[in-house]
Design brief:
single chain, 406 residues, alpha/beta, Rossmann fold, six-stranded parallel sheet, 13 strands, globular
Length: 406
C-alpha cells in the first residue's frame, strides 16, 4: 500500500498542533515565534495546522488549518440538543482525525504552552487525549513530533497524568520552558536525560523600542481565575475572592493618584472580568475621570505589548502577560497560579515580587508595589541583561530544531 504521506524528495511537511490562536494571546505568541522561525529558516517547508483557532490561523497567519475538535466546524449552531450531539460525535471522531492528520506530515510541532500541565482546569479526554494520540501516531508512522519549550507540572488526577505521560514518552523531541517543568516530569517517571530547558518561545517575539513608560500609570492584568484542576468544587468562591482583592488593590492605586489600565490575556474570557472590575469601581466612584482607569483591548500579543509599553509598572496574573512585561523590562509583580511563575520571576531576578493567586495578601501586594516603584530603574536595567540571554536561548533551540527535525 502506498504511503499517504509525501515522498521524501519533496518539501518537508510541517504541522503545528494545539490550541493555537484560540484566544489565549500568550500561547499565540509562542506559535507566532515558531512560525516566524519556520518561514525564515525553512522557507520551502509546507506548513499547516490542527488548531483550536483554525479560522484565525487561516485569516491572520495564512496557515491552512483544520479544527482541533471536529464540532468546532459547527459552532454556529445554537440548538443545545444538536450541539451536545455534535460534541459527542466529535469525541468519537477526533482521535481518528488526529491520526490521519499526523500521518500526512514529516514533522509535527507543539509550540510552547502548558501542554503537560494541569494548573488550570482540563479534562483528560479533551486536549490531553488528542495530544497523546498525536504523539503515539507520530511514533507509529515515523513522524517527528516535537514538544517545544512546553510547561509541565505534577498532575494528581490519574487519567490526566497517564495520557500526558504517554504523550511525553512517545514524542520524538521534548524541551521545557523552565527547570520546574523538567523536574516535574522526572517526578512523574519520565526519563528526562535527553531533554533540554530553553526559554519560553514567546521571548522570541519582537518588542517595541524600550520605553520606561509613565511612572504614574499602572498596568493591571486580570484573568478569569477560578483555581486549578483540583479546585473545581470551589471555583466560584476562588474567583470571587480573587476579583475582590484585585478590585481593592486597583482602588488603592486610584486613591494614591495612580492611573490604571486593565488588560487580559485571553480575549475570550478575561475582558469580562476586567469590565466587571471597571464597572464596580465606577459604581462606587461616579466622579472619577474616565482616563483614570480604562479597559484596554487587543487582537494580538504585539498589540498587547505595545499598550503595555506605555505603563511604568505591571501587576498581572496571566503567565504570558507577566512574561510580556518582563520582556519589555517593566518592573513587574506576578499574582500567579503555579510554580512556573516562580521559575519565570526567579530567572529575571524578581522572585521577591511574586504571590499566589489563591492566597495573596493585598497588604503585601501594596508593600511589594511600593518597593518596586522605588527600585524601577535598577530592576529594568537588570532585566535587559536577562532578556539578552533569553533571546540567545530561543535562537539556540531553533538551531537545534533545524538539525534534528529537518
Amino acid at each position: 500500500m502506498a504511503d499517504v504521506r509525501k515522498s521524501k524528495t519533496s518539501a518537508t511537511r510541517v504541522g503545528l498542533f494545539g490550541g493555537l490562536a484560540g484566544g489565549n494571546l500568550g500561547n499565540e505568541a509562542s506559535m507566532e515565534s515558531m512560525l516566524s522561525y519556520l518561514r525564515r529558516d525553512h522557507p520551502d517547508a509546507v506548513i499547516d495546522a490542527m488548531s483550536g483557532g483554525f479560522r484565525r490561523l487561516r485569516d491572520t497567519y495564512r496557515v491552512d488549518s483544520i479544527p482541533l475538535f471536529w464540532n468546532e466546524n459547527h459552532d454556529q449552531i445554537k440548538n443545545p440538543l444538536t450541539k451536545n450531539f455534535l460534541k459527542l460525535l466529535s469525541k468519537i471522531m477526533d482521535p481518528f482525525r488526529t491520526i490521519l492528520w499526523v500521518r500526512r506530515h514529516d514533522v509535527v510541532i507543539v509550540p510552547g504552552a502548558g501542554v503537560l500541565e494541569a494548573t488550570l482546569p482540563v479534562r483528560a479526554y479533551a486536549y490531553p487525549l488528542l495530544q497523546c494520540v498525536a504523539c503515539v501516531s507520530g511514533k507509529a508512522f515515523g513522524v517527528k513530533v516535537a514538544l517545544v519549550s512546553v510547561g509541565a507540572n505534577e498532575i494528581k488526577k490519574r487519567a490526566t497524568r497517564s495520557v500526558s505521560n504517554m504523550a511525553a514518552r512517545t514524542a520524538f523531541y521534548r524541551s521545557y520552558r523552565d527547570t520546574h517543568s523538567i523536574d516535574a516530569m522526572r517526578k512523574r517517571g519520565i526519563n528526562t536525560s535527553r531533554d533540554r530547558v530553553f526559554p519560553d518561545l514567546a521571548f522570541g517575539i519582537p518588542v517595541p523600542p524600550p520605553d520606561s513608560g509613565d511612572a504614574r500609570l499602572v498596568g493591571v492584568g486580570l484573568m478569569e481565575y477560578n483555581g486549578g484542576n483540583d479546585d473545581r468544587a470551589q471555583a466560584s468562591e476562588i474567583q470571587a475572592a480573587y476579583i475582590e482583592k484585585m478590585t481593592f488593590f486597583v482602588n488603592w492605586l486610584l486613591d494614591n493618584e495612580y492611573s490604571v489600565r486593565l488588560f487580559g490575556g485571553d480575549v475570550t474570557v478575561d475582558y469580562a472580568i476586567a469590565k466587571q472590575v471597571h464597572a464596580d469601581i465606577y459604581s462606587r466612584r461616579p466622579d472619577l475621570a474616565p482616563t483614570r482607569i480604562e479597559v484596554e483591548t487587543f487582537s494580538s500579543y504585539s498589540e498587547l505589548l505595545g499598550k503595555m509599553n506605555q505603563v511604568g509598572v505591571v501587576v498581572a496574573t496571566r503567565f504570558h502577560n507577566v512574561l510580556g512585561a518582563l520582556k519589555l523590562c517593566k518592573p513587574t509583580i506576578a499574582i500567579g497560579y503555579s510554580k512556573k511563575f516562580l521559575s519565570l520571576m526567579d530567572s529575571m531576578g524578581l522572585s521577591e515580587f511574586y504571590q499566589s493567586a489563591d492566597s495573596f495578601s493585598v497588604d503585601q501586594l501594596i508593600r511589594q508595589f511600593n518597593d518596586l516603584q522605588d527600585r524601577r530603574a535598577d530592576l529594568s536595567e537588570a532585566m535587559r541583561k536577562y532578556n539578552a540571554a533569553n533571546n540567545d536561548g530561543v535562537a539556540e533551540q531553533f538551531s537545534l530544531l533545524s538539525t534534528l527535525l529537518f
